[in-house]
Amino acid sequence: MKKPLTNMINDELDYSQTYMRNKRLPRADIEFSWTPEMLSEIKKCKKDIIHFAETYFHIVTLDEGKQKIELYPSQKRILKALQKYRFNVINSSRQFGKALALDTPIPTPSGWTTMGELKDGDILFNSKGESCNVIKAHEIMYNRPCYKILFDNGEEITADEEHLWFTQNRTERYHMCEGTIKTTKQIYDTLYAGSKKEPNHRISTVAGGVNYSKRELPIDPYVLGLWLGDGANEGAQITAGKRDVFEIVNTLKQRNQFDEIIVTEYKNNVYGVRPTTKNTKKITSLNTLLKQYNLTFNKHIPDDYMLSDRNQRLDLLKGLIDSDGYIDQKGNCRFYNTNIELAKQTEKLIRSLGYKTTYREYIPTLNGISCSKVADVRFTPREDVCTISFKTQRIKHKEIENISKYRNQWNYIKKIEKLENSVPVRCITVDSPDSLYLIGNTFIKTHNTTLTSIYALWLTCFDDYKRVVIVANKESTAIMILRRVALAYENLPNWLKPGVDQYGKKEILFGNGSGIAISTTTGSAVRGDTVNCIIIDEAAHIEDHLIKDFWASVIPVISSSKKRTTKIFMTSTPKGTGNVFHEIYTKALKNEDDNNMKWHAEEVHWYDQPGRGKLWKQDMIEALHGDKMLFEQEFNCAFLETGDSAIDMDLLNDLESSCRPAYQVFEDGHYNVWKEPAPGHIYGMGVDVGEGIGKAASVIQVLDFTDLTDIQQVAVYSDRFIHPTRFADIINRVGHHFGCPPVLIERNNIGSEVIAVLKEIHQYENIVSYNPENLLYGDIRPGVLSHSNTKFNGVMNMRYWLNACKVVKLYDIASVLELKTFVRYPNGTWKKKQGDNIFDDRVMALVWCLFLLNDNIAERYYDIVEEDDNGKPLKLAAYVINQPGMFKLDPFFQQTPNAPMPSFFDMSPDDGLNELRYQGWHNLQ
After folding, report:
1. Are both 41 and 164 inside the same structural domain?
2. Are 226 and 232 in contact (CB under 8 A)?
């Protein structure tokens, strides 16, 4: 017997009529009592999907907040096509997201960056802590109403009033609803709840933390953590108390990194533990490793450890907690240390593992005497974060949950302030399934808007026994897409909805027999299932081998429909050529069948959105650094093939014709000099570091910046087999040959070792430091960390000087040939073509050399006399560095036979004559 539903005129439900006590979910067994007007509306919606969408479907827009959707003509055309045609493939341009301040910290798999530094193709973290891609990094916006959001963990984020957040308010908590999407302004207006003015909105932490890649770490993470907490500053000895020493020794033995663990009692019940190595040829000692990582007398967590995979970071934390941590009887963990910077890094480490932390600094007292300042980090673990049994037995072990019921796994919005003065903001679009991505030092989840599937909701609401399957390449992705559709359902009027029979994470079933489920792009996807509609979102971005296996599973399901009513709705933005999406779309345009399937193609261009005209297009092309082809891909549905050169091919041909043999050749052809160094000239050096094992080359590019309308390539060094330490010697000698100019060195991997030798041994003072703000925890070190952001900016800068200005003269034929094979890939990045004998080491050294003319580098290392219309340096002032040996050719270099003799300089004793004699040089009489 169905229970009658009352109060439908007011669209109200009591809890007995709801599914799981959620007033937005009517039960399936409820007998609805509609008014004549409601029946008329239901009939209209069933007949006309456009009427349904524009009357009852709500979105959140950049300017107007939550409102009924106003469909553009192209959107109406596509919805009608979905009704009319069986197989639809939609090629769509990029859309806009919501805006955050440019200095907002953004965690990425390669370190930290900011909203202002992001570019298309960058890799971020989604709400699950897994990688997602920046589909579009939009232009900067000004004069937007902005707010500063303060979280209870101390995080502060500045966002515009229409930025989207997925929060759970107090009412949603009470009704066991995961939460809904809200704008900053909506949160501001409902900030507190109840008479006690408690925080109303909260955002869950990242279950399990973020997922970095596994790294080769020279010191076992647990050993390093233990030493950082209780190790001697000057060496490898670790202090342990009587209660813990034997467990620590056993754990160290299990790590199997060192040959022997020596234990010495040097105080009453206080022991020294020293990991040692007997076979020095096989294993590097801990003492040596600590020195190599610059850790002795400088305790800190190196970047490689902060950016390692979760198990490695958890092992590091276990060592820290075993040494300087404490677990109380309630299972709460505290980490104390007088090394404030180490404590701050430890807090960031804990946050990256998915925990909410509290942090404070204070000065403790002992017998009334003030002691050193101490930092105190607190959190509540749900897994083993240590190995000592006394501590682990107190931990309250819990399953990791995506939406936790525990208060300490939520970040509460404590306060929001409206800013009197606006700040520049920017929005991005990501391919995260729920459009969520992580921001801030504490990994806060935030949102960027995408259109939900109106068609899926319409079909299941107004037709009986229709089954829709949403397909994605990962189950977690598909779950979040389904949740997005569910949220749209919940915002419909109750009288318009079919009742809920099942409302899960993987499937929703309605009382009319219709439902929506998820699947993945696997070989067994939807096989044996009865499906009426398959929706594939962002098909071009699904890995090619996955979607091909998926087709083999889907086609039998489609062909088994006797009434031929099964539909497929495939939509995506372009991602190069050769993938399944491109093949199907191309055949559809040609009216060709694909596997006996007749596809209907639709396109949504940039100009289909009202308000976008020629001026908007011009602004967008400028925001893309003048890249018209990239604009065509991102906004005009064009499929770019891999292979477009980063530099105009006609220009490359001109540069090739200008190449000539070097004036001087040294080191068996590795060091080529086209123009002698001259006092008063302004030089720059860019360095790309190889491992010296015959693969990637170690390269130095030297450019003459004296006249920025005529930049000259004057020298190139390249060697694939040179040891990094000797390469540092080469950089030093080349630098002195050209007057010790600024040198920008890529410090990835072995590059940091080269920089250390150049700085500490040779004391080369002009090593350039380049780090975007907040990158890698604010660490400013010599060199440049090459990741997707900096490489993109570097290539864009190179294209400006070569392509746009055409002021760079290259004489090295190998550099030009590498530029010819340095090509664009579909995601907008540039790198070498695939091939065994194709390299890009000279190109990257050239990129870093020209990057010395980047605004925030040039102003620190050169005297800019004049700028061009684009704010780039136009004229530099000459500089003089008074160092012995400048502009002399170091006798270290051996001249290649038949090459011109090197230049000699007449130097007085005060200028370094004694130094020359010491090196074996003789006076010319």
Report:
1. no
2. no
Asked if residue 638 is part of any domain, the answer here is: no
Question: Is residue 685 domain-shared with residue 778, that is, in the same domain?
Answer: yes
CA distance 554 to 551: 5
Are residues 76 and 156 located together in one domain of the fold? Answer: no
Does residue 214 share a domain with residue 192? no
* Other CB atoms within 10 Å distance of the CB of residue 162: 22
Q: Specify whether 413 is located in the same domain as 461.
A: no
* CA 753 to each of CA 454, 844, 846: distance values in angstroms, whole numbers, following the listed order: 55, 19, 21
* CA proximity to 166, closest of 147, 179, 155: 179
Residue 5: is its pLDDT beyond 70?
Answer: no
**CA nearest 239: which of 315, 318, 317, 324?**
324
Q: How many CB atoms lie within 10 A of CB 293?
A: 18
Tell whether 725 is covered by a domain.
Answer: yes
876 and 784 co-located in one domain: yes
Instruction: For residue 304, give Cα distances in angstroms to 292, 344, 466.
Output: 14, 16, 51
- What's the pLDDT band for 96 if we cut at 50, 70, 90? very low
* Sign of the dihedral defined by the CA atoms of residues 381, 382, 388, 390, in that order: positive
Write the pLDDT tens digit of every residue in 479-497.
Answer: 767 876 787 788 788 889 8
* CATH for 520: 3.40.50.300
Among residues 146, 181, 216, the alpha carbon closest in space to that of 60 is found at 181
Beta-sheet strands, E only, within 363-407 = 365-366, 369-370, 374-379
Domain that holds residue 466: 3-60+70-94+451-604
The SS3 of residue 427 is: strand
Residue pair 858/852 in contact (Cβ under 8 Å)? The answer is: yes
Strand 333-337 with 325-327, pairing:
antiparallel
Let me know if residue 65 belongs to a domain: no
Rounded (10°) CA dihedral 432, 122, 617, 871: 150
Element (H, E) at 310: helix 310-324
788 shares its domain with 860: yes
Which residues make beta-bridge pairs with 274? Answer: 262
User: Is residue 247 in some structural domain?
Assistant: no
Torsion of CA 720, 726, 729, 731, to 10 degrees: 20
User: Which of 343-352, 465-474, 539-548, 886-895 holds the top average pLDDT?
Assistant: 343-352
Q: Residue 529: its pLDDT value, please?
A: 66
What's the whole-number average pLDDT of the chain?
80
Helices (H), 666-763: 724-737, 751-756
- List, in order, residues 6 or more apart from 713 with CB less than 8 Å away: 674, 701, 702, 703, 704, 808, 809, 810, 811, 812, 815
SS3 147: strand
Please name every residue paired with 61 in a beta bridge, in sequence order, or none if there are none: 65
Distance CA 512, CA 779 (A): 59
Please state whether beta strands 270-276 and 238-241 pair in parallel, antiparallel, or not at all (unpaired): antiparallel
**CATH code at 712?**
3.30.420.240
Pairing state of beta strands 533-537 and 410-418? unpaired
Quick one: pLDDT at residue 919?
41
Q: Are residues 76 and 89 in the same domain?
A: yes
For residue 7, what are its two tokens? 């109060």
Helix (H, G, I), strand (E, B) or coil at 533: strand
Contact 166, 144 (CB under 8 A): no
- In 3D, which of 224, 231, 292 has the Cα closest to residue 258? 224
Domain count, the chain: 4
The strand pair at 597-604 and 87-92 is best described as parallel
Judged against a pLDDT cut of 90, whether residue 33 lies above it is answered with no
Q: Which two tokens stand for residue 597?
A: 């399937």
Residue that terminates a domain, selected from 390, 419, 447: 447
% of the chain at pLDDT higher than 90: 25
Q: Report DSSP state, residue 790.
A: H
Neighbouring residues of 645: CB distance < 8 A, sequence distance ≥ 6 = 652, 819, 820, 822, 823, 824
Give the span between the Cα atoms of 675 and 733, in whole angstroms.
Answer: 16
